[in-house]
Amino acid sequence: MDPNSIANYGLHTLIKRARKTSSLLHCPNKSVKTMSKLAKTLLIVAGISLLLNFVWENLQAPLYQGYSNFWQHLPICSVASLGDVLIIFVLYFLWAIIKKDPLWISKMSKLDVILLITVGALIAVLIEKWALGTARWEYTSTMPLIPYANVGLLPILQMVILPWASYRLARKYI
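Predicted structure:
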């Protein structure tokens, strides 16, 4: 082979690789599409779960000591709602790791729902036990309690119902 044909071969190969690279930039591959869909999914889950938890937190707020009115508790309930969204994200990513599928909610099974309910309840009981034990909050006498666990029923139901509801509703917009 003469030097010109080697140079032409090298130039041809370089152009070919450049075309492949630029086509990847203009026509995203599957992993980029997956990441884009995941970002959209997470934004939708965040919005839905924030709304649901904000409403729930404000409805159950009168069952906690120190509640006086909606406006006084609005900042507290807002921060609590953000914490609830964080828990829902932890559950989401835990399931994504276990199922090896970042978009698992589009194929959520009955077993997923049962496990979400169980893990959500467990997390909620642990958080309530910790918060009550460290005097972060106290219930009024009107808060229904779960026997033996001695934690409020409504905060447990919140983590049983709202993660599943958030994922279920998000599926309609993905």
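Summary: The two ends are 56 Å apart (CA to CA).
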